[in-house]
Every structure is written in C-alpha cells, then in structure tokens.
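Pasting as-is:
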Amino acid sequence: MAKKKAFALRVDEKMLAALEKWAADEFRSTNGQIEYLLSEALKKAKREPKK
C-alpha cells in the first residue's frame, strides 16, 4: 500500500456536508470519498501518478 501523507484541507461547510452525505451514501469515510474523487479526476485528466 502506498505511503500516505496527512495535510490540512479547508472546505466550505456546505461542501463538506455534501461530501459527508455522498460518502455515507456510498459506504465510505469522508476522507475515502475525497481520495476516490481525486483519483477519478486524475484518471479522467490522464494525470495519474506513475506506479
């Protein structure tokens, strides 16, 4: 498993609430949902990190 680095992320309260609900709907943690969305965005933009 890849090493993970923690960092602070400031997000609007309403956006965070929407992310939390979306994560719960998909049985993920909020952090897991954000990681999933970032991963999908990187794939779509063809900017995935090299393995």
